[in-house]
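Pipeline run #58 for the internal structure catalog. This entry was flagged by the ingest filter as a single-chain record with no existing model, so it goes straight to prediction. Upstream metadata was stripped on purpose; only the residue string is passed forward. Reviewer on rotation: M.T. Logging verbosity set to normal.
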Amino acid sequence: MKKVEAIIKPFKLDDVREALADINVTGMTVSEVKGFGRQKGHTELYRGAEYMVDFLPKVKLEIVIDDDALDQCIDVIQTAAHTGKIGDGKIFVTDIERIIRIRTGEENEEAI
């Protein structure tokens, strides 16, 4: 099993969620996060004063899937989240050793 973490632009969340639903990925955790990479933030004007916005709003998706669905999941996220502009985001993949559903005690694939 793998955990896929994707950091994407907030306005792409619905596109990514719908694309994942099309390949039967039904469970995910979504968090509003802030960060920066090469994008480095930008300058904004507020009441005539200029200030620097260092951390940009992003959305973080966390999905746990079977190994055999990993490549398709990554392809779908990459395609749906792509704008071609800087700041499109990143996808991280890590191994999951064990999953336990608290309510039933089911483990691993049955618990996803």
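catalog note: Strands lie at 2-8, 29-35, 42-46, 49-53, 56-65, 89-95.
catalog note: The mean pLDDT is 89.
status: ready for reviewer M.T.
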